[in-house]
Amino acid sequence: MSQPEGGPARILLADDHTLVRRGVRLILDAEPDLAVVAEAADGAVAVTQARSLDIDLAVLDIAMPGQTGLQAARELARIRPGLRILMLTMYDNEQYFFEALRAGASGYVLKSVADRDLVEACRAALRDEPFIYPGAETTLIRSYLDRARTGGPIPDRAITEREEEILKLVAEGHSSKEIGDLLVISPKTVERHRANLLQKLGLRDRLELTRYAIRVGLIEP
């Protein structure tokens, strides 16, 4: 999707913290070529808005209730392939970077330095260029290029999208029956996925699953 001729790029901003949205909006709306035209407090609402609104760029927080920014990004990449996507995160984590690229995003911006990097990142995304925040380039890109040079793959996803959905809901405290109702699957299927998660990740119980979910940005502490 191209930027409207002569007008600012239209941005959808999704973050579950009102104060963060307000701060990010102030940064973006101060630029003549950028305008926030819609806000969402979770990934599902962001996807709904992106279906109906004429937007050029979605700025998504990684860790949101209901549907994470990465889950929303994957869905947006499927339903709106021309839409540019940028991720926001509190955490500097190599795996997030690769997950963001794999989900269809142009990269991600650390919230702690959004006032410095966000505008540049938005403009890069609108030019369809990856944004690498300062300091990440040496570790992330060198690692990526080394893998590419030696024929190695980008790090594999540790778990499937369905397992990720279930992990998030388990970590949020939902029972197997509640998860089954939300995802329209049987509680037995939920239990099977949960057992697979524990085995795959080498974890023992819900508490360790919750800690893992926090570490990978599915939920916030």
Structural commentary:
The protein is of the alpha/beta class. The chain folds into 2 domains: 9-148, Response regulator (Rossmann fold); 161-215, Arc Repressor Mutant, subunit A, CATH 1.10.10. The protein is built from 10 helices and 5 strands. The chain has a 5-stranded parallel beta sheet with strand order 2-1-3-4-5, with helices on both faces.
Q: Indicate the percent of residues in helices.
A: 40-55%
Architecture (CATH level 2) name of the largest domain: 3-Layer(aba) Sandwich
Listing every helix as H and every strand as E from the N terminus to the C terminus, the arrangement reads EHEHEHEHEHHHHHH
Q: How many domain regions? A: 2
The name of the CATH superfamily of the largest domain reads: Response regulator
Radius of gyration: 18 Å
Low-confidence stretches: none
How do the strands line up in the largest sheet?
2-1-3-4-5
| Beta-strand percent range | 5-15%
Number of helices: 10
Under CATH, the topology of the largest domain is which? Rossmann fold
Global outline? globular
Class per helix and strand makeup? alpha/beta
The first-level CATH class of the largest domain is given as Alpha Beta
- Average per-residue pLDDT, rounded, comes to 84
Using DSSP, what is the number of strands? Answer: 5
Distance between the termini: 36 Å
Domain HTH luxR-type: 152-217
Protein name: DNA-binding response regulator, LuxR family
Pfam family, one: Response_reg
GO molecular function: DNA binding
